[in-house]
Amino acid sequence: MGWLWAVIVGFVLGVIAKAVIPGKQHSPLWLTTICGMLGAIVGNAVARAVGVAATRGIDWSRHIFQLVAAIIIVAAVDALYMATLGKRRQQRAGA
After folding, report:
1. At what angle do helices 2-20 and 29-50 cross, to 10 degrees?
2. pTM
3. How far apart are CA 14 and CA 93, in angstroms?
4. Among 29, 38, 54, 63, whose Cα sits 20 to 30 Å from the Cα of 18?
């Protein structure tokens, strides 16, 4: 059941990150979900390092760290995805 929550949280974080980043992102939904999952992992690690990993009630600070990490990761991966996709399209057009 833990993997299911990881996918759900990754999906939600990835979609929110895509909505926050200005412009159009071209990466597919499965890649956005993976980036959101990575953002959750990195955000938890940062929250733990800062000392806010566990608080009473809703861990808003931890969720903010997760979202910021997801935004950074989604933006970076989308740029890499477009660079790779753009090179493939140029190679096809030149052939």
Report:
1. 100
2. 0.84
3. 32
4. 54
Share of residues in the chain with pLDDT > 90 (%): 55
Assigned token pair, 76: 């970076």
- As a whole number, mean pLDDT of residues 36-44 equals 94
The first and second tokens of residue 38, run together, are 């990575």
Mapped onto helix, strand or coil, the DSSP state of residue 49 is helix
* Count of alpha carbons within 13 angstroms of residue 7, beta-carbon side: 6
Residue 67 has pLDDT above 90, yes or no: yes
Q: How far is CA 22 from CA 49, 81, 90, in A?
A: 29, 17, 25
pLDDT tens digits, one per residue of 5-21 = 889 999 999 999 999 99
Half-sphere exposure of 29 (CA within 13 A, CB side): 5
Measured distance CA(32)–CA(74) in Å, rounded: 6
